[in-house]
Amino acid sequence: MSRIGKAPVTIPDGVKVEVSGNTIRVEGAKGKLSFDFRSEISVAHDTAAKRVTVSRNSDDRLPRALHGLTRAMIQNMVIGVSKGYEKKLEIVGVGYLAAVQGQTLQVRAGYANEVHKTIPTGLTVKCPDQTHIVIQGADKQLVGQFAAEVRGIRRPEPYKGKGIRYDGEQVRRKAGKATIK
User: Which of 82, 111, 143 is where one domain is finished?
Assistant: First the structure.
């Protein structure tokens, strides 16, 4: 049995869970999320104990793989609608900066033109200053995906360390050309 899959998901106060057919809907202070799980998996919601349990119908390879995955997805949804997720990015480089204009993130990262990224619905993007970006949202996958796309605009390069990096990310630095005497 899956160690992750057999652990129940506890539902905190202020979070409402509804299971209908192969869909689970979670609603909380930070938003609403839904997830369509596979038919090989069964999800049961116990309202009295405030928990959700996930079980599989057989011990075949696919249901075993989906068991822990489904439980982790439900756990991430519960955390997302109650606390939310956040990724912080840092911009390093002379003349590199970012700003939020409506539903667009504008990034100047050493290219001839600014790069404009449309902010997906369900995410909140803030720039406390020109060299930091804060991405917040209830959907863990959406927050991580958008943060990776923004980082992909100009990844940190190993010689000077310029680029967009996650807050606290260590960039491996390489030595430049050495002159021979």
Answer: 82
- Which residue in this structure is represented by tokens 């100009």? 154
pLDDT at 2 over 80: no
Which amino acid is present at 61? Answer: R
Spatial separation of the C-alpha atoms in residues 72 and 8, rounded to whole Å: 10
Domain assignment present for 31: yes
Q: What would the mean pLDDT of 38-61 be, rounded to a whole number?
A: 92
Chosen domain end from 82, 104, 123: 82
Q: Residues of the chain with pLDDT > 70: what percent?
A: 97
**How many structural domains comprise the chain?**
2
113: left (phi over 0), alpha (psi -120 to 50) or beta: beta
d(CA 178, CA 165): 27
Phi first, then psi: give them for residue 176, nearest 5 degrees: -80, -170
Structural domain includes residue 3: no
CA distance 149 to 129: 20
3-state SS assignment for residue 9: strand
151 found inside a domain: yes
d(CA 118, CA 146): 10
Q: How far apart are CA 15 and CA 50, in angstroms?
A: 10
Mean of the pLDDT values across residues 31-52?
A: 93
